[in-house]
UniProtKB/TrEMBL annotation:
Origin: domain of life: Eukaryota
Protein name: HIG1 domain-containing protein
Keywords for the protein's UniProt record, in alphabetical order: Membrane, Transmembrane, Transmembrane helix
Record-annotated membrane-spanning stretches: 29-48, 60-80
Keyword Transmembrane applies: yes
Length: 122
């Protein structure tokens, strides 16, 4: 397998993994914030007469707003955490590659690091 093909495959797998993480976290965030929105709507309905007079469509709009906010923020938070973790892993790998290549007397260029990574993945 060539280096560019291995890099492309690794990136595609990482994109797919990030997408799956984002979808799962989005569903969890949407469910959590929808529950909060429904709870607050029920509490407001029984404690606040002005809210009780509002139509069901408006109350549904507020709950769906809670749902969308939870979906977006949950997915974004999970994606940022995943990207941070991947960046840390990549920096650690590059640090080890630079150290080992320097010990061999090879200047750790991007090409040499890619070759080192390909040889260590096999």
């Amino acid at each position: 397998m060539s280096t560019s093909l291995a890099t492309r495959t690794r990136r595609e797998e990482d994109v797919e993994r990030a997408y799956n993480i984002q979808v799962k976290a989005g569903f969890k965030g949407a469910a959590r914030s929808t529950a909060i929105g429904v709870g607050l709507s029920i509490v407001a309905h029984y404690t606040w007469p002005a809210f009780r007079r509002q139509r069901l469509a408006f109350k549904g709009f507020l709950v769906s707003g809670f749902c969308l906010v939870g979906l977006v923020f949950g997915a974004e938070r999970a994606l940022l955490a995943h990207e941070t973790q991947r960046r840390i892993e990549e920096n650690d790998m590059r640090r080890v590659a630079r150290l080992e290549l320097s010990k061999r007397g090879i200047i750790p260029t991007e090409t040499e690091i890619a070759k080192w990574r390909a040889s260590n993945e096999q």
